Amino acid sequence: MCIRDRWRPVTKVLYLITFLSTDSGIVGIGEGRIWSTVIDTYTKTLSLAKLIRGLFLEDALNALVLKEREELGKSRNVNYGVYLAFESAVLHALFQCKRVKHEAELLGGAYRDVVPIAYTIFLNHPKAMARKLKEAIRSGFKHVKFKIPCGLEDLEKLLESLHSIKMRRNVEDLILRADANGCFSTLEKAKKALSIMERYGVDIVEQPMPQDKLKDIARLRREFYPTIEIMLDESLQRPSDIELFAQMEAADIINFHPPKLGCLTITREAILKTKKLGMKANIGSSLMTEIGLSHYLNLAASIPCLDYPLEELGLYNIYGYRITRNPLEVNEGKIALRNIGISDLDFSLVKQFLIRTV
């Protein structure tokens, strides 16, 4: 799928949407964002379909989790998006079979019916980003993530614009999170950048340095905590990394992307482990359709104490792309949990995705 911002192509992304048909006529629907080749994804899809074909739903769920754990122990190159697509489809079918109110109950409990959502501002001219911040505040969002430039002069110009909006709107409870995507390559530059961000009231800096520079990130954290908290994103490659982050004291917060860790079950376990180790957790965004967004909402609802709003807004709420007749919409910075079933899909819109039957 080619995502466009008005007329300009932004990126091409690959999604796997799975339809799991049961003997009782129930159809489970799942989705995974893919960061691998089409050939590898198709091969993995056939493999997992063969693995769970003919199993009871509970057994299929266990088989997928066990298979992914086995792969995690052998290689870093796991096609997690396929696991996410299959496990979420199994969970969706199981949710219908058991007739529970929310899918979250199968993950560990439904602790909320409405999930708070974070607002994301993509990198643009400072004035354009300031307008987006105004829009976010006006729409009731309490947590705003924004991309930042790597140049220190450009960074200060941007922060000056955003800070002035926050002060004029008098929203002291608004959390501002700067996403650096690892762009400050040296500790010296990272310190200068965070000093600027500290002056302008930035609360969280996401991945300030490249993913492998954990020692420098830990030094950065010690210098600026508690005024600024450090969130690690790209540094997280597998669940076992969490223990390393805690040992090195390199992070206050870890950002979790289910398509990077695979099964929702494994992602939830990693989130709960993070909290036990004294860090906080954030559930990130992968720009999913309403199917994936629904599963993300249930994951967020299953966390007893949610540290931060869910970052996933869904393609519809950002770009207007939808595949359902009645999309999941943000209202006052929140989205209510709602099941997305096969009857909700508009297959004339689904045709924009490449679907193969296995």
Quick summary:
The chain has 358 residues and is of the alpha/beta class.
Q: Characterize the largest beta sheet: strand count, sense, and whether it forms a barrel.
A: 7 strands, parallel
Q: H/E series, N to C?
A: EEEEHHHHEEHEHEHEHEHEHHEHHEH
From the alpha carbons, calculate the radius of gyration and give it in angstroms. 20 Å
**Structural class by helix and strand composition:** alpha/beta
**Major beta sheet, strand line-up:** 6-7-8-9-10-11-12
Helical fraction: 40-55%
Low-confidence stretches: 1-10
Q: Per the principal axes of the C-alpha atoms, what is the gross shape?
A: globular
The proportion of strand residues reads 15-25%
Q: Roughly how many Å apart are the termini?
A: 20 Å
The assembly state of the depicted protein chains is single chain
Q: What is the averaged pLDDT score?
A: 92
Q: Tell how many strands the DSSP assignment holds.
A: 13
* Total count of helical runs of at least 4 residues: 14
